Every structure is written in C-alpha cells, then in structure tokens.
Amino acid sequence: MLALSTGGCTGIATSAAPSPSTGTLRARIAALTLGQVDFGSISILPVRFEKSRISGPFDDSGRTLYCVSSHMKGRTFGKAERPKAVIRHEGGVLKVLSDEAEVCEGHRTEPFTELDSPA
Fold it and tell me: Burial, 10: exposed, middle or buried (Cβ in 10 Å; 0-12, 13-18, 19+)?
C-alpha cells in the first residue's frame, strides 16, 4: 500500500532536515537544500553547483532565516539555473519556506562552499 500525504498551503515545504547532531549548521543547511526539487533532487541528469552563496542568519519578524542561492548546471544543457531557497532555523530544526524569496533581498551574502560541487 502506498500512502501519500498532501500538505495544505502552509508556506512551509515538508522536507526532513538532517539530525541536529550531525555536522555543522552550514552542512545541515546544504544537505537540506540539496534535497529540494529546485536544486535538482529528482533530476535524472546529474547537476553541479558553482558560486553558491548564503546569507544569514538574519531576523525577519521574529524568524531566524538563511537564504541560499547557487548556479546549477546540468539540467538545461549549457545554461545555468539559479535556484534559491529560504531556510528557517527554529529550536535546532531547519525548515524550507516556500514562496518567501523576497525576504532575501538586501542581505549580505558570503560564499557557501558546502554546497558547491567538487571541481
């Protein structure tokens, strides 16, 4: 029997984040990000990431957020895609927020080598 669950329009994607006891916060954010469809998690073609960036932590209306972006190559044969994700950190738990990309505007970013593919 195959059971499917559908979430309502909550604005939060239901993805399992790595356990808080495994790795640094940045490594956990990278693992959660790589599990997202926008970042090629179900692509049949191999993808690679370059020039990945992260901003945060920053406070947005009482929420602690991180923004992740990258140049993803592989699915579109020559043209890089630019996936973005907004990650909420609350009580040691990471959640991906959907439809919240505008909160990332104007925040300082830094290289996010944990997400980049090895050369």
Answer: exposed
- Domains held by the chain: number: 1
CA angle 15, 17, 21 (to 5 degrees): 165
- Give the residue numbers spanning the domain of 67: 25-111
Neighbouring CB atoms inside 10 A of 48's CB total: 15
What's the mean per-residue pLDDT of the chain? 81
Contact yes or no for 28/16 (Cβ under 8 A): no
Percent of the chain having pLDDT more than 90? Answer: 45
**DSSP structure class, residue 92:** T
* CATH code of the domain covering residue 101: 3.10.450
